[in-house]
Design a protein that fits this description.
Number of helices: 0
Helix content: under 10%
Structural class: mainly beta
Order of helices and strands: EEEEEEEEEE
């Protein structure tokens, strides 16, 4: 069964850094682009960053230059290194495989990991 387990969130001050991890299982991880999404209170889930199976990356304008997505196919894990955090980065962060039109497994979202940026 497809599963995503996100971790690494927490409370951080503005300007700080966090590294999120997402362990995936139940599908051929190395064959799929992977993406991080986030959902802030009262807002729709949005795409933050994605990485193709060959390592090409793309970022939302709001995080470009501050966040870095990476993957370890041997560990079936995708990471999101977040730096220069801002209060508007506060959200629950999720990962999923990415199809080009959106998440490949929309019925299998993990529990997410809460990121709170506040002084």
């Amino acid at each position: 069964q497809v599963q995503f387990v996100e971790s690494g969130g927490g409370l951080e001050q503005p300007g700080g850094s966090l590294r999120l991890s997402c362990a995936a299982s139940g599908f051929i991880f190395s064959a799929f682009p992977m993406a991080w999404y986030r959902q802030a209170p009262g807002k729709q889930r949005e795409l933050v960053a994605l990485i193709t199976s060959s390592g090409n990356t793309r970022y939302a304008d709001s995080v470009k230059g501050r966040f870095t997505i990476s993957r370890d196919n041997a560990k079936k894990t995708v990471y999101l290194q977040m730096t220069s955090l801002k209060p508007e980065d506060t959200a629950v962060y999720y990962c999923n495989a990415y199809s080009g039109n959106g998440p490949v497994y929309p019925a299998y979202w993990g529990q997410g990991t809460q990121v709170t940026v506040s002084s």
